[in-house]
Specification:
By secondary structure, this protein is α+β, with helices and mostly antiparallel strands. α14 (304-331) crosses α19 (580-589). The N and C termini lie far apart (61 Å).
Length: 601
């Protein structure tokens, strides 16, 4: 099993033993998580792909891997094209590919704990067109051939105190109970890990970069709940925090408990609960209501305590990033600095205050051509030195107990080309357009996406990812349901309290990448004479933009005024936390654009 070719061969042999003609391998876990524990990294183990989203299909004579536009370059670098064909989502899908490639009359296996009910229906329909069959497996065949598969984490749960959540777990469960009553339901199944962490005010260490614990929950209409989690992960402090209203069970008992809900009306989320959950409820005689997880929207709409905590986390995170950018301005020109050394330094600066719990995702530290790989992750094999007259893209974030951060800056190492300045300024104009947007209540994120892309489109350019994603409160750095995107979501109405990223970009394959990202808070906007309730954004991230890449001749007066006002906020928030040369550097980086010698011609 030393090579990915060996692993692919072994899986085919295992499928043949099980009389299966194929198998689907998604990158997720039993909770439909984006980021998963090491034990669930089946796609990476099988193929070598290190991205955070993708799927694969293995047939007897061919195999395909499916990724979206963020990973177009990365998948080709990490997965051997001799054995895998590269498929682009959403241009195609696993179901559509199977309809074309599955053998007639074949049996294609899937793990019902790793797919949604909707996916199963679509795949079954696609295969039926070929006379083929979709077959649920009792145990995952990848696990059967993975000799050193890691065990699930045994880390203990920890309490997230009410002074940071702004609402007790009992009050949150009472809200869910009210929702159940309104829906005519007896209970709701919670299977998304961040929903459980938020609803019970607990956090964990079971998934790298995301402070959640492996658990399931059923919340009842009397505001009590059953929490299914490995017993050795619970200590007396957590038990006392949960109180008598939460009954504790072994996580292994969850499926049988679903089968015991005979006669109950149970709500489950078809997007977030796996097919096996629906199958167990149906087998047990429960009456099913397909509804969105009742935690999703309250979790997305941050309360005043969560917002205050987030702002505090952003202030210290902005200082760490500014120290890093100053350090980079001194060290990079000396030569020899590589991507891993740079990201290690940034993490060390974030950790200096002692409040950093983890990174919020693996830092994207991309020099030159590596910056064009949207979700690039540096390794000893791929790392590049930050070379003169090139661009360096760093996308990073921290997990603090009071907030989750995510920020991207693109830096010129040496003298940038005019093309680089043009592309950066177009990205910046789109970034500013989102930050300045004013829109009626009820507007979807997808309706705003064009604001970020318009200046790139004018030059025949674009980027293959969304413009903004939701962010959790010391939870997942990618949180729904809100997004700014025209594909893969973006149809959720934006509401006050929702936090999103604002991150347009541009990527020139083989040369450089540009992305500028701040987090923004959706807020009410007071407009004199307005006939509608209007909303806008408050920028939460504070770190200077790259002056050397801004072509002020491409900016209008309103854009210049916004950037100058933003830089003044950076000085006010971050400046008091810096001293010495770093403080001098920050003052220089945040002076008004046209007063600092920048030319508009």
């Amino acid at each position: 099993m030393s090579t990915h070719e060996d692993r692919l061969k072994a899986l085919r042999e295992e499928l043949a033993r099980r009389k299966l003609d194929g198998f689907v391998v998604p990158l997720t876990d039993e909770h439909m998580s984006e980021y998963v524990g090491a034990y669930a990294q089946r796609l990476a183990w099988l193929t070598g792909f290190q991205g955070s989203a993708g799927s694969a299909v293995v047939l007897p004579a061919e195999a395909a891997i499916f990724v979206d536009g963020r990973y177009t370059l990365q998948v080709r670098e990490q997965v051997d094209g001799k054995h895998w064909s590269y498929q682009s989502v959403p241009q195609t899908s696993v179901a559509a590919w199977l309809e074309e490639h599955a053998p007639g009359g074949g049996r294609i296996g899937y793990d019902p704990w790793l797919h949604t009910k909707g996916w199963v229906t679509a795949a079954r329909k696609a295969l039926a067109a070929k006379g083929a069959e979709l077959v649920a497996v009792d145990t995952n065949p990848v696990d059967a051939i993975w000799p050193d598969r890691p065990a699930p984490s045994k880390a203990r749960l920890v309490v997230q105190p009410d002074e940071l959540t702004g609402k007790s777990s009992a009050a949150k469960r009472a809200d869910i109970a009210d929702w159940l009553t309104a829906k005519g339901a007896d209970a709701a199944v919670l299977s998304a890990l961040d929903s459980i962490a938020w609803a019970f005010n607990i956090r964990g260490q079971d998934v790298d970069r995301t402070p959640v614990a492996l658990a399931y929950a059923v919340v009842h209409d009397d505001a009590t709940a059953d929490l299914y989690v490995a017993p050795d992960k619970i200590d007396d402090a957590v038990r006392a925090h949960l109180g008598n209203g939460v009954r504790l069970h072994d996580r292994a008992a969850f499926e049988s408990a679903l089968r015991a809900l005979d006669g109950k009306t149970v709500a489950a989320d078809p997007e977030r609960a796996v097919a096996a959950i629906f199958e167990a409820l149906e087998a047990g005689g429960a009456r099913l209501i397909e509804e969105r997880d009742p935690v999703v929207l309250p979790k997305a709409i941050k309360n005043p305590v969560e917002i205050a905590g987030h702002k505090a986390a952003q202030a210290r995170d902005g200082a760490a990033l500014s120290r890093f950018l100053h350090w980079l301005s001194v060290e990079a020109p000396k030569g020899g600095l590589d991507e891993i050394q740079a990201s290690d330094k940034l993490q060390a600066l974030r950790a200096e205050g002692g409040l950093l719990k983890d990174l919020s995702f693996d830092t994207i530290s991309g020099a030159g051509p590596n910056g064009a790989v949207v979700h690039y992750r540096a390794s000893d094999e791929t790392k590049r030195v930050l070379e003169p007259n090139s661009l360096y893209l760093v996308d990073s974030g921290g997990q603090y107990q009071d907030g989750t951060t995510d920020v991207t800056r693109t830096v010129a190492i040496g003298t940038p080309t005019q093309e680089m300045r043009d592309r950066y300024t177009r990205v910046l104009k789109g970034h500013v357009a989102i930050a300045r947007a004013v829109f009626p209540h009820g507007t979807r994120g997808g309706q705003l996406d064009i604001l970020a892309r318009q200046y790139l489109w004018a030059a025949g350019l674009d980027y293959a990812h969304g413009t903004g994603h939701g962010v959790g409160a010391y939870l997942s750095v990618h949180e729904g349901p809100q997004r700014i995107a025209t594909f893969g979501g973006g149809d959720e109405p934006l509401q006050p309290g929702m936090i999103l990223s604002n991150e347009p970009g541009y990527y020139k394959a083989g040369e450089y990448g540009i992305r500028i990202e701040n987090l923004i808070l959706t807020v009410p906007m007071a407009i004199e004479g307005a006939e509608k309730e209007m909303l806008g954004f408050e920028t939460l991230t504070f770190a200077p933009y790259e002056r050397a890449l801004i072509d002020t001749s491409m900016l209008d007066a309103g854009e210049i005024a916004w950037i100058d006002a933003y830089h003044a906020q950076v000085r006010a928030v971050v400046g008091p936390q810096l001293d010495g040369d770093a403080a001098v550097w920050l003052r220089r980086q945040t002076t008004p654009l046209l007063e600092s010698g920048d030319s508009r011609s």
